[in-house]
Amino acid sequence: MSNKVLFLLIGVLMIFMVGMGGGLFLMWNKLSAMNVQGNGGNGDLPNQEAILENPLGPIISLETFIVNLADKGGKRYLRLTMDLELGNPEMESEIQKRMPQVRDSILMILPSKRFADISSVEGKIALRDELLAGLNSFLLQGEVTKIYFKEFVVQ
Fold first, then answer.
1. Could you give the angle at the alpha carbon of 154 between the alpha carbons of 146 and 121, nearest 5°?
2. Which residues constitute the domain of residue 17?
3. CA neighbor of 131 nearest in space, from 104, 155, 153, 151
4. Cβ-contact 101, 144 below 8 angstroms
5. How many Å apart are CA 151 and CA 96, to the nearest integer?
6. Could you tell me if 18 and 92 lie in one domain?
7. Contact 102, 65 (CB under 8 A)
């Protein structure tokens, strides 16, 4: 009787392994087909032409900003690290010369925000737009085209 149980157990285990292998094979094919459809059937990146038309400008990394938020009681603070993408390479020297103005402009905007203002994605986008407008208001050689948040922590 022990031989029958052993053969039965081995048979069930073999069927289970074949079933798992077949399931993984089908899932692999399904995922591969979805990937090909997502890329439009070619191996190129989806927005490769758009990337080539709009090359990345020079990037300036700013030091971390830590400010109290304007919430009642002043118990929340924001820790923010960001990079600035510049419109042209000549602006790098202007930004370095005007770094006190850059930091002051940012430090005048950040503490005026409440947690409710910046907790959503829309709030972060609005903050980014406000920072862009504030920075571009005093730049002469060009403009900051984008701001990239590297760290955005509210506590």
1. 50
2. 2-52
3. 104
4. no
5. 22
6. no
7. no
Total residue count of the chain as it appears in this document: 155
Same domain? For 27 and 8 the reply is yes
pLDDT tens by residue, 111-130? 999 999 999 999 999 999 99
For residue range 16-52, list pLDDT tens digits in order.
Answer: 999 998 888 888 888 777 776 666 555 555 555 555 5
Token pair listed for 20? 């798992």
Measured between alpha carbons, how far is 153 from 43 in angstroms, rounded to an integer? 37
Rg, the chain, Cα only: 27
Question: What pTM did the predictor assign?
Answer: 0.65
Tokens 């032409």 identify what position? 49
Same domain, 64 and 48: no
- 129 with 63, same domain: the answer is yes
What CATH number does the domain containing 106 carry? 3.30.479
Strands 77-86 and 59-61: antiparallel
Place of tokens 């925000």: 113
Q: Are 132 and 87 in contact (CB under 8 A)?
A: no
